[in-house]
Amino acid sequence: MFNPLLNIVSSTHWQKNSHPQSCSKQILSWLLDETSLTKKLEQQCEKFTVEVKQQLNTNANESVLSQLFPQSEQILVREVLLHCDGVANIFAQTEIPYQTLADKQKKLANIGSESLGKFLFQDKTLQRGKIEIAEFPIGSSLHELCDVLQQPCDHSLWARRSLFYIENKPLLVSEVFLPASGIYK
To answer: Residue 56: exposed, middle, or buried by beta-carbon count in 10 A (0-12, 13-18, 19+)?
Structure first.
C-alpha cells in the first residue's frame, strides 16, 4: 500500500516565500499558517486521530536532512495520516536525526498514534523555520496515495514543510493536504 518511503521531501521543487499563481488564497492560508495543524484540524471535526503508516530508521543519505545536516548518519522517518472523523485529511512525513532523539526528545521515537503537533507545540523551546510549499501535479506518487485512500483527485495537491527545532535540535515535518482536507474548495 505504501512505498518503503514515500519521499515527498525531495520529490519536487519546494518554494520559500513564494505565492504561486496556481495556488488560491484559501489554500495558501492553510499552507502558510504557523499555528498547530493538529489543533486546527481538531477544531474542524468531532474526532481527530493519527494513523501511523510506517516508522523506520534509514541512512541520512536517503533524506533531505543529509543536505541540511551532513553530520547526521541515521534518521528516524515517521509517516502518518491525520484523520478527521475517520477520513484521511493530511499525509505527514517527519524526519528526525538520531542526534535530536536525545534527552527529553527521546520520546519522539515512541509517540505511536499520538500527535506530533501536540508534542511540538507544548514545548517552550520550539522554534519553527520558514515554511516552504510545493505543488504535486496530477500523476505524482501522492495522487496514487489518494487513489489508495479512495480520494480520487483531478487537480494538483499542495504540501508544506518546515524545520522545527526543540532545544535547538532539528526535525523536518512535511504535510500534504489530501482532497478530503477541504482546502481545495
So the answer is: exposed
Radius of gyration for the alpha carbons in the chain, expressed in angstroms and rounded: 16
Overall pTM surpassing 0.85 (yes/no): yes
According to DSSP, residue 127 is labeled: E
Contact 94, 68 (CB under 8 A): no
CA nearest 33: which of 123, 133, 157?
A: 133
Measured in whole angstroms, how far is the alpha carbon of residue 160 from the centre of its chain? 7
Cell numbers representing residue 99 in the block: 542526534
Q: What is the DSSP string of 54-90?
A: EEEEEEGGGSTHHHH-TT--EEEEEEEEEEETTEEEE
Gap between the Cα atoms of 161 and 45, Å rounded: 23
* Each residue's pLDDT expressed in tens, for the chain with a length of 185 residues: 445 456 665 566 778 766 777 889 999 999 999 999 999 999 999 999 999 999 988 876 655 555 665 666 788 999 999 999 999 999 999 999 988 998 889 999 999 999 999 999 999 999 999 999 999 999 888 888 999 999 999 999 999 999 999 999 999 999 999 999 999 98
Q: What angle do CA 149, 36, 146 make, to 5 degrees?
A: 10
Q: How far is it, in rounded angstroms, from Cα 55 to Cα 58?
A: 10
